[in-house]
Amino acid sequence: MNSFNPLLIGTEDANNFVAGRRLVGDGMAMDVRRPSDGNVYAALDSAGAGQVDAAVENAFSAFKTSGWAGTDPRARMKVMRRWADLIEADAARLAPLEAVGSTRTIGEILAWDLSYTAECLRFFAEFADKMGGEVVATTPDKLGMTITEPYGVVAAVAPWNLPLVMAAWKIAPAIAAGNSVVLKPSELTPFSIVRVAELAIEAGLPAGVFNVVQGDGLSVGDPLCRHPRVSKVSFTGSTATGIAIMRACAETGPKPVTLELGGKSPQIVFADSKDLGQAAATVARAITLNSGQVCVAGSRLLVQDKVAEEVVGRIVAAFEAHRMGTTWDDATTMGPIISEKQLGQIDGTVSRALAAGGEAVTGGRRALAPQQGSYYLPTLLTGLAQDSEAVQGEIFGPVLTVQTFADEEEAYALANDSAYGLAAGVHTGNLDRALRATRALEAGTVWVNRYGRSNDFMLPTGGFKQSGIGKDLGREAYAANLKSKAALIQL
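-> structure tokens emitted (491 positions)
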């Protein structure tokens, strides 16, 4: 059994973490609610302006004096490997911390999130002694080199949808490259990352190399990104917030940014798919995973007209088989929406789609009364125009729009008619078509006959158009946390 008592998780877990120790914030007090039942279960004292400044200054001091950036790269690797081992060993404490205030079920966290977080640290740790500068070709009387160096202090702003996993994407490559990090988690999910920071100290990471400041974007996130000691910013979240962060970095730097932003990702099902049942199951999971609260959620189904009825019928059956419930219930297959505010935005978009002539084949409303938690039924919408809000805008909930197409040309035109370009899925039994699709689709990731990330950390993730700049994961993410200089020596 994976169940736990949510009443045991409370305010004492919602600290900041600066200079190697927990620190109570002296900024704005905020209520933290459990989305599973709507109850306030903790008070978050966010970092005040002085504490944000102190966290960055401490990180800068650690970068300059701790020796982390200049230590033997393999020694850095060993510390990060110990850190990963401690995360896995602390599952009994970390999993409830992660689950209680988030939308991730305890079963999902134990089965995937914690091991993925630990493996992300191990993966980037291995880059520490394997990527660096190089000797470049020049004439025999000169020696030309490129030399890589860490930036210094990297600010990371992580989202609420997969709190530990998304934080690991930010901190692992930055710290492996020798930087110090100041992380702001979402104020909706403030708990688990502080425990991870404690484990970093236990593993041997010098105090100050990894710091956590709590609070909202306006009072903590913005001053963090604007701090003059911050040399690089990494963010995952909405496109609107990403634009604001990019503006802040331009005004106070300029400083480089990595932005993984919104998505409206298509899933294309061709009639020649070898297993329409499997394709439909994949499509359904891609929009109900984490209740659709995933940046790469496959929220647009484009299905070839001759198999549309069969595929839609199978997806409806998969939607209606879900058991919605609390994140601490072992029987839950689909958890809550993060907040009443987010649920209201989802429901508002669906209501406007229905008023405009769309049809909810299934779902289309909240699942339970507000006092029972924030749950929304998996919803399948048909009959919408290509330019409708529900087809074009990111809903960030379990809402799938359906459109049909006749041939490849129409499928790619519909798929690419979007301001976003984060991910796309293709289901086909034709290898030539699969290869054509990967080139034709305007997306940073294209999955064929599957949908969703694997544990192949070498594959970078990041989007085109309004879906962002730069990459998380892969060697690209590690390289993005290093600056390079050229050296030319006359012999």
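Residues 166 and 176 are 16 Å apart (CA to CA).
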